Each structure stands twice: as structure tokens, then as C-alpha cells.
Amino acid sequence: MRTNFSPAQLVDPQVAAAERQVRACVHCGICTATCPTYVLTGDERDGPRGRIVMMQQMLEEGGAPAPQAVHHIDRCLSCLACRTACPSSVDYARIVDAARVHIETRYRRPWLERVLRWSIAFAMSRPVLVRLGLVFAPLGRRLPGRLGRLARMGAAARPRTEPLARGSGRRIGLMPGCVQKALAPEIDAAVSRVLARRGFDLVPMAGAGCCGALAHHMGRDASAWTDRAVAAAQGFDEVLITATGCSAYLKEPGHPLGAKARDFLELVDGAKGRAPRRLRVAWQAPCSLQNGLRLADKGRALLVDCGFEVVGIPEAHLCCGSAGAYSILQPGMADALRVRKLANIGQVDVVATANIGCLHHLSGPDAPPIVHIAQLVDWADGGAVPYVLV
User: Fold this and answer.
1) Which of 86, 270, 380, 389 has the lowest tally of Cβ within 10 angstroms?
2) Could you tell me the residue range of the domain that residue 69 belongs to?
3) Which residues in 2-16 are b (16+ Cβ under 10 Å) and which e?
4) Mean pLDDT, the chain cut into blocks of 10 residues (390 residues total)
5) Residue partners of 258: CB distance under 8 A and separation at least 6
6) What predicted TM-score, i.e. pTM, was given to this entire model?
């Protein structure tokens, strides 16, 4: 695809990377069938091919983007199913990342939108503030719009604090993350028990916090979080964060922690025992696991090895609608994807996933019990039954 960026524009490494990917796109349209928003709307502007045209034009022109372009780019989930499907190996992430930075720095959103986005980037990346929000969340459940939605999500959370297990072998730094640390600290506890049985010593990284993915995917500067994480990783050869959305972000090309970053499924080769009950488990592999880490098949194999009956999910490649802060910023689209995902999951005993966003977004009275895969592996290894199955 021909481009018309100026030499001055291509001095910016992010714009230059986007330009290379735009040139690689041949507009074949294979990506559209894998794009959740295009599948829902049938609108070319809500698919990767249409968005690439809009983003190229926006970046080449260099000024304030048109509201219509912002609207359709905002509706992108960054699930990157298009990147997996692309026969030309176009790295769509490089294009949309540059476009989001451009929008963030050159487009003035309505003030309520600006407040919401600032609140997400500031508060949700800090577990102390998330916990404080959980205390007051029930008071805001009747608020209209997206603030009320956020309050209802917080009111439904039931965090359970458990101590981390320590092993005596290979030492790995644990990044505490942000939202998961506040909403579901029991996930890291389950991970620590599973890894301790396999000879890993999981050590919390003092000073590390949010990985920066929340800010990054809104076009904001995440360098402060990156600097903190890099400083905290000194002395560790390997670093683990137990939400796949975060580990996929750390492993993206150019991230300073990319060589050290590990995912839970990279470290666990198989079960140490068999599940006490043979449950029908739907394996909801997050988009970050499918299209970033490419470990979805390993997750399924691990569940089978644990003795669970793993059932397939139709349209498993389509995002559930969580996508970090997407379910807050784009609630209509996120809800439609959630309904579609739950309909495809159908009647099962439990849903296993590997990302706190998917877990929290899909949970509810209309859904089966949902757990992190580490909690099922821990149970099969001889640990406690996950609380949602009690």
C-alpha cells in the first residue's frame, strides 16, 4: 500500500514503524472475518482494513483527527486477531498504537470523556485506589451511564486475600500488577502454589506496580510504569505477571522487560495430580493468549492433563469484549460481545480463563462459574477447591 508520510514525520520511530506496516497491507480483507467489531456491525470502518485507511490518512495529515475517525478507532479492541490472520504479516498493533498516541495528543474529547479516561489511567493502575473504590462502589450502583457501570462492576467483586507460597528452586520475580491485585489476589496465591510444587520460588518485586498496559492502550505515556518495573526487576532473570493481557504487553517488541517476561503457561508443563471431580470446562483463551503469547493450545492441554473434560467454544477467536478498559469505555459493544461469548460457551460446569479482564467481564448471574486456569490446576494438584465451585 502506497504511503505519503513526510521525511519529518518518519523521524518519529513510532510513526515510522506504523508506516512500514501500512505499506505491507495489501487490503485483501481476510482480517475482517476475525474482527469482533466488524462481525457485529458489518461496517468496514469497524474492521482492520477500514481502520488502517483512516489511521493512515489521520497520521499523514498530522493535524486534529476527524471525530468519525476517532469514533471507529476507539471501537478497536486491540484483540489482534487480525494480526494472527494476516497473510502479509501486518503488525496492526504498531499502526493502532501510533494512531492512539496521535488522538491522545491532538484530539480534544468532551470533558466527561477526558475525566473518565484520566480516572481509568490514574485510579485503576493503583491497587490502593481500586480497593478504596470497591468500598464505595455499592453507593454508586444507581448512577447512570459508564460511572454507574463501573460502580456495579466494583460492587460485584469479592476479593479473597491469601498468602503466597514460596518454593525453593528457580527464582522468579512476581509483578503484582494493579486491578487483579485488588479484585482477585487469590489468583496470584494459586499461581504461587502451583509453581512452588514445580520448583519455582516466586518472589514479589518490591516497587513494581501496574505494567502500564492500561495507559498504553489509551494512547497515554506509560514510561513511568515501565521505569518502575525495570528498576524492580533488577536481580531477577525472569519476571512473571499472571494476567495474560499484561504479559503479552510486556512481550511486545521493544519493551525493556521483553526478554525477562514470562507467562504462567510457559512455566507449567503438566499436572501433578488429577482433579477430584471430572468437570466440563470451557477454555476461554483470552485474545492476549491467542494472538500475543500464542499459548492457547497449551492451556487446553494442561486442563486435559488435569483430568477435566474440556469443551470447545464456537467462535473462540472472537473477543469477549473485556479488552482492558474497553468494557468501560465502549459498554455497548462490550456487552454485545459478552452476550455472544456466553451464548457460545453454553452450559458447562465452569469456565477457565487466564486474564482478570475476561474473568471479571464475563462473570455474573447469567454466566457459569469462572476461574483463572491456575486455580483449577492448583485444585488438581491437591490444593483447595476454587471458591466459586464450593
Assistant:
1) 270
2) 9-106
3) eeebeeebeebebbe
4) 94 97 97 97 98 98 96 98 97 98 97 92 89 80 70 75 88 93 93 96 94 95 95 97 97 95 96 94 98 98 97 97 95 96 98 96 94 98 94
5) 250, 251, 252
6) 0.94
